[in-house]
Amino acid sequence: MIPVKPMPGWPAFLVHGEVALRPLEASDAEAWRDVRSRNMDWLRQWEATLPPGEDHSGGNYAQVVRRLRRLARQGQAMPFAIEVDGSFAGQVTVNNIVRGSAQFASIGYWLDRGVAGRGIMPIAVAMVIDHCFTSARLHRIEISIRPENSNSLRVVEKLGLHEVGYAPRFLHIDGAWRDHRIFAVTVEDCPRGMLATLISS
Fold first, then answer.
1. What's the pTM?
2. In Å, how far are 15, 30, 127, 199 from 158, measured between CA atoms?
3. Do residues 155 and 167 lie in contact, with contact meaning Cβ atoms separated by under 8 Å?
4. pLDDT in tens, 106-155
5. Which stretches does DSSP call E strand in 38-121?
6. What whole-number distance in Å separates Cα of residue 158 and Cα of residue 148?
7. Which of 37, 142, 167, 198 is deepest in the core (most CB within 10 A)?
8. Per the structure, how many domains does the chain have?
9. What CATH number should be reported for the domain holding residue 98?
């Protein structure tokens, strides 16, 4: 068996104030389920679903973590757990990492509604983008958001990401194919770092 070359920048532990990011672990199961169950109605309308005809098995937490950790070992993802004041509060995942001439990835995120409105998600996403551009040596990050998702749109607005396109029927979410606005940032767009720019704005 050919050994998998470790991905640059993973695993990673990032901290700023009350916000800490670390690899998502199997031991997060109870906290993850608790937060997800309390936020089910709030999260359902924004989260990807499988269209009819796809295999709907493999959705429990243990299977999700195994899949994400496998992708991380293969250099295709970085699944971060968000902790706020030491408690599990959500997730930021770097997905679809492409190397070669692209050096590209996308980011998705969700947060416990109980800690929303405190500026936590912009800080978390800013830290992850900085990590992608430095330790992980990526060049471009993209975030896709439904036009109706005002909370996520505020995150990219605070971070100053450029809107680069509109994708009709882009992802299957909450039972239907949904349009998305596409935002992106390259390393050249934030020479001071995303977090430093956010804090100084």
1. 0.94
2. 19, 32, 13, 10
3. no
4. 999 999 999 999 999 999 999 999 999 999 999 999 999 999 999 999 99
5. 78-84, 87-98, 104-111
6. 17
7. 198
8. 1
9. 3.40.630.30
